[in-house]
Write a structure and sequence with these properties.
The complex is a heterodimer of chains A (about 500) and B (about 475). By secondary structure, chain A is mostly helical. Helix content of chain A is about 75%, strand content about 5%. A two-stranded antiparallel sheet of chain A has the order 1-2. The chains are: A mainly alpha (about 500), B mainly alpha (about 475).
């Protein structure tokens, strides 16, 4: 463990909180100022997370930039933040999606102040969760990241927003109803009076029976947020209802919180439970991949298609975690990153198109590539990433997961790859109907993306391609965490 | 005799007397009454603060002053002060009754202070009745006579019924243990809990306190009384009265030492039924005060979880939760009182457009509602967390799981409140709600306290632990 010379991680949180306070102080009518403030403070978080990503000493590995302050000593709660190979990609992802999300909502005109305030609360919690190494704080951040969703969707949302918002909130908090007892159970059973993950994950802290019991609770609890089949039904409904930036953060980052928390809490602390339930995890993940692909095939709404493809792609993350191997973990974390960027690009592009055409029904669009070629390009690149085209970031994650899955579970691996073909089919169909074919005269007058409004999509596209061409950057990072962890298990 | 131990009670006694005199004056002057009450209540908080570290026995050892009782007296005095601070527009009480209204509030607070310090079964009973009778009248004082009289009578009938049961229980306890002092009971009871008569006697005695806390099956009065009483009186019943009930229930259950399996089972059953019934019934409510009444029943269930852990950690968590309840319930009622500025009962749908009428109140409502639902980073979450942790120490995993499921159920109706305040727009153009500067500051302070104590509970938690330490 290497303590931080400067509290970079806390600086990220403070930057979010300062942004929030400034937004709250500014009067609601000064919409432009509020947007600029949001952009600046989210930009700072992006810069710090980029810095951390490149400043992390890969040769040394382990926990770096550690900050640890006793919080409630009699209960063993510590304010304990650290960065390692698993959470640095996630912090970077959050920074990118946060910043581009703020820019995507640049044209927002309705209750701007409240929107950005809730948005900042949500993202602060997401950052907090990714960097925290204390179970108590992980739970707090987990819940805090969820509750602004309700208001964000119900006030600024679109299709069936009240139903979608309520369903999403209740589902996700039902997940936390399983997580909290499990966390307290681990805290009590360890008898160590600590919530510190690094202490609780030491071997022989828990008996195999305790690990199996706690693992399944944590897996289902966090799994609801990760979109694990059959607990995924909130996800397409919620994504469709949410405003664009919220969809971006939600599908791009929040769902990763679920998968990441399974890794950080369930797998780290209960490795024997992990090995015990891996078979089940693989089955659920495979069903999710296949189901998401087939249901996506029959959708008529652009956002629903993306929503179901998220279920499918999060299944790939789950499958990677279920393989109990270095390749699987590498693939899963890379896939979380790749899918996060890709989905953000998807929702950001759909957002632009929807704001112009006021529809996201595939059949009503058509020939858009002739009307707005640049906007279409962004979307088509995201669709290609979703299909798993090589040299885009999401390709490498999927590749690693499938290699690992074929070793561990050949049949399920084959099914998952088969489903990927189906998903390629529905992506191509969607692209064809939306962007090619006869031009819809109704939209002929619409203008293409101006440079300024295209910035968020450009950033996402560049990241997608950069990590696609140079995946070693990411793999080296993840391996500093996954290799020691798996080796520690095998001994 | 060490009168200095008795200063807080004496102070409230004098305060009560002052209002008794005022009520006899011919001229009714609501402003004068309000400011007198406010100043006296503020002084009361100071008096209780200075008395926090006192310890000792009074009145033939029937009255015990310790950290536990003093912490609760602090909460009660604070509760009274907060309630009086929102009494500036007492429109539903006729001006000529204002001195009586404050008189009853002071007497009731005095009675509750006596209650949290009593360690003799008879003083407990007398203090309990004194507080109950003041509340019966407070409820019936509302101008809208039909509704408030009905509520008052319902309250009264359920109350005396509970008292009768309690007296029967006390008699049973005395006949078997020959103990009337709580200190004697601590010695005798743990060994005798296996005897059916003792167990039944104890449970029946607890019924008197269940009534105050609105635990099933003594919760029937809650929705009608909450709805029928003036908003400020309801706020008092929902905050200070609940705090006192939690205190005395905790003290009585602590008497049993580690408890017995039957007692625990009885409390577990009551807790589960209270939580589930309260939350399910709250879902269908349209009147905000009725909804808060059912949510109070549910919260009584959560409190019981901490009490039935019967460990020092459990009692500490309950004390913490009492503070949390006081603050978050009060904030919710503050919004009710301010939005229903003519003193009417508030429908949930009438919250529509609150985010535009008063963003501050809307935010206060949001934080208090999330706190009531137990969502971090609020004091309500931290309280629930401590309660669940204490229960889990004793291995009540299923109970905690059921409680968490209840939290999810409750979230549904809490979110509906938020939806009304943030999404729905009123039919006619809403007028902005004007908050006076002190009220705005108070609201802001409450929001900050709920969040800051939720995030950084160390000091309050240590205080609660120390207070719980004096119980065992």
């Amino acid at each position: 463990m290497e303590y931080a010379s400067f509290p970079y991680l806390t600086a990220i949180l403070l930057s979010c909180v300062t942004g929030l306070v400034v937004i709250l102080i500014l009067p609601g009518e000064r919409k432009a100022q509020i947007k600029w403030v949001s952009a600046v403070f989210s930009g700072i978080t992006l810069i710090i997370s980029l810095y951390l990503f490149f400043a992390y000493d890969k040769s040394q590995g382990g926990l770096q930039f550690v900050e640890s302050i006793p919080w409630v000593e009699s209960l063993g709660i510590t304010y304990f933040n650290a960065a390692d190979g698993f959470n640095l990609p996630m912090l970077l992802l959050t920074g990118i999606v946060f910043f581009t999300g703020v820019l995507t909502m640049w044209e927002l005109d309705y209750r701007v102040k409240e929107f950005y305030a809730f948005y900042f609360v949500m993202v602060t919690a997401v950052f907090g969760l990714f960097m925290s190494m204390d179970l108590f704080f992980i739970f707090i951040w987990y819940d805090v990241s969820l509750f602004p969703m309700y208001l964000l969707i119900v006030v600024w949302g679109k299709t069936r927003k009240e139903y979608g918002a309520m369903k999403l909130t209740l589902y996700l908090l039902a997940g936390s109803a399983l997580v909290l007892p499990a966390i307290i159970y681990l805290y009590v059973q360890s008898g160590l009076n600590t919530f510190d993950v690094t202490i609780l994950m030491r071997p022989d802290t828990f008996t195999p029976g305790q690990q199996k019991f706690a693992f399944i609770l944590l897996y289902i609890g966090f799994g609801i947020l990760a979109g694990v089949w059959p607990f995924h039904t909130w996800s397409p409904v919620g994504h469709v209802a949410a405003p664009h930036a919220v969809s971006m953060v939600h599908a791009g980052v929040l769902m990763k919180i679920g998968a990441f928390a399974i890794l950080r809490v369930a797998i780290f602390i209960c490795p024997e439970g992990w090995q015990h339930w891996a078979q089940l995890m693989a089955v659920l993940a495979t069903i999710g991949i296949v189901y998401g692909a087939f249901v996506g095939l029959s959708q008529k709404d652009l956002k629903f298609v993306i929503g179901y493809s998220s279920v499918s792609h999060m299944g790939i993350v789950g499958l990677g975690l279920a393989t109990v191997s270095v390749e699987g973990l590498n693939g899963a974390v890379f896939q979380m990153f790749g899918h996060g960027i890709m989905t953000a690009l998807f929702f950001s592009s759909v957002g632009y198109i929807y704001d112009r055409t006021h529809t996201k029904i595939i059949a009503e669009l058509g020939g858009l590539s002739r009307i707005m070629p640049v906007a279409s390009t962004y979307f088509i690149v995201a669709a290609m990433a979703s299909m798993g085209i090589p040299f885009l970031a999401s390709f490498w994650g999927e590749l690693m997961v499938f290699i690992a899955a074929f070793k561990a579970y050949p049949v399920r691996g084959a099914l998952a790859v088969g489903a990927l073909v189906v998903s390629a089919l529905f992506m191509l169909r969607m692209v064809q109907h939306t962007f090619y074919g006869p031009k819809n005269e109704k939209y002929a007058h619409l203008s293409d993306v101006p440079f300024g409004l295209g910035i968020p999509r450009m950033i996402l596209l560049i990241v997608l391609v950069a990590f696609g061409l140079y995946p070693t950057l990411m793999f080296d990072m993840i391996e500093t965490a996954s290799v020691p962890f798996i080796n520690g298990l095998l001994q | 005799m060490k009168w200095s131990l008795f200063y807080p009670e004496l102070f409230y006694f004098v305060g009560g007397l002052a209002f008794l005199c005022l009520s006899m004056s011919k001229r009714s002057d609501p402003r004068r009454d309000y400011y007198t009450a406010l100043v006296l209540a503020a002084l009361g908080v100071v008096v209780c603060l200075t008395a926090v570290n006192r310890e000792g026995f009074l009145f033939l050892n029937t009255y015990r002053v310790d950290l536990f009782s003093q912490v609760f007296k602090m909460m009660l005095s604070l509760g009274l002060f907060l309630i009086i601070s929102i009494c500036s527009e007492l429109k539903t009480i006729s001006p000529r009754h204002h001195p009586e209204f404050y008189f009853l509030l002071f007497v009731c607070t005095l009675a509750m202070m006596l209650l949290v310090s009593s360690v003799h079964i008879l003083t407990i009973y007398v203090a309990l009745e004194l507080s109950s009778y003041s509340l019966y009248i407070l409820v019936a004082l509302r101008r809208d006579e039909k509704m408030s009289l009905e509520a008052g009578i319902k309250y009264f009938i359920v109350g005396i019924f509970a008292s009768a049961i309690m007296l029967f229980g006390v008699a049973l306890l005395y006949s078997t243990t020959q103990a009337t002092y709580v200190t004697d009971m601590i010695r005798v009871l743990p060994g005798m809990l296996a005897t059916p008569t003792v167990l039944i006697g104890l449970l029946l005695t607890l019924c008197g306190f269940f009534f105050k806390l609105a635990v099933f099956p003594f919760h029937f009065w809650a929705p009608d009384v909450y709805q029928g009483a003036a908003n400020q009186a309801t706020a008092y019943i929902a905050t200070a009265s609940k705090v006192a009930a939690i205190a005395i229930l905790t003290r009585m259950v602590a008497v049993t030492g580690p408890g017995s399996i039957y007692l625990v089972h009885a409390l577990v059953t009551l807790s589960i039924i209270s939580m589930t019934l309260g939350n399910l019934a709250a879902i269908v409510q349209k009147d905000l005060k009725r909804l808060l009444a059912y949510s109070a029943v549910a919260h009584a269930g959560y409190v019981l979880i901490g009490i039935l852990s019967m460990t020092s950690a459990g009692y500490a968590s309950v004390i913490f939760y009492a503070v949390a309840l006081l603050i978050m319930k009060f904030t919710a009622f503050l919004v009710v009182v301010k939005v229903a500025d003519d003193g009417r009962n508030l429908e949930i749908s009438q919250l529509a457009g609150l985010h535009r009428r008063s963003p501050l109140l809307a935010m206060a409502l949001m934080v208090s509602v999330f706190s009531l639902a137990g969502i971090p980073p609020t004091i309500g979450f931290t309280g629930k967390f401590l309660i669940f942790a204490a229960a889990m120490q004793n291995g009540y995993f299923t109970l905690v799981l059921i409680a968490m499921i209840n939290v999810v159920i409750s979230l549904y109706y809490y979110l509906l409140i938020l939806k009304a305040a943030y999404l729905q727009e009123p039919q006619d153009e809403p007028s902005p709600l004007h908050l006076s500067q002190p009220t705005a500051i108070l609201t802001g302070v409450l929001v900050v306290v709920m969040v800051v104590v939720g995030i950084y509970p160390t000091y309050l938690f240590e205080l609660a632990r120390a207070a719980a330490g004096t119980l065992m």
